[in-house]
Amino acid sequence: MSREVIRDAYLKPAIAMVLGFVAVTVYLLAYGAPDMIPSTLLAILIQSAVGLAIFWICSVVWIGFDEPFRINVMRLLAIYSISWTILLIALSLPFLCTVSVIVPAIIFTLLHKKMLDLDFPDAVLVSVITGAVWIFVFVVILT
Q1: How far apart, in whole angstroms, are the C-alpha atoms of residue 135 and residue 6?
Q2: Torsions phi, psi of 52, nearest 5?
Q3: Could you say which DSSP state residue 140 is in?
Q4: Domain that residue 109 falls in
Q5: In this model, does residue 9 exceed pLDDT 90?
Q6: 1: three-class secondary structure by DSSP
Q7: pTM for this structure?
Q8: How many angstroms separate the CA atoms of 86 and 99, rounded?
Q9: Do residues 116 and 72 lie in contact, with contact meaning Cβ atoms separated by under 8 Å?
Q10: How far apart are CA 7 and CA 48, in angstroms?
């Protein structure tokens, strides 16, 4: 692999990750909830750890490993930070609840497909498993 390919493999998810974290922070500041910034960023990190564990298990079981672990960590952090931005925006819109959940879920799945280079069925399955565990962890355990 050339240095440029390796640099791009790390640089693109790093930029996406930073932009996602900045977007979440800017959104919460604009929404008038600066006190929610630390807890939201912590939730993103927790979700990323859970998502990383799920993705690792899925990779062991059927997806396989084709990228270094560090790149996948950065890609998952980028996916979750961008997804949180989209979810926060969707939940603040005055639409029906289903739109507020379905659109971010579709984008979440497409981000998995694009950023982790998964086939669409694999991206759907990883997203559904991650979403189910996420709901279990944050709704059942933490409330």
Answers
A1: 35
A2: -65, -40
A3: I
A4: 3-141
A5: no
A6: coil
A7: 0.84
A8: 12
A9: yes
A10: 22
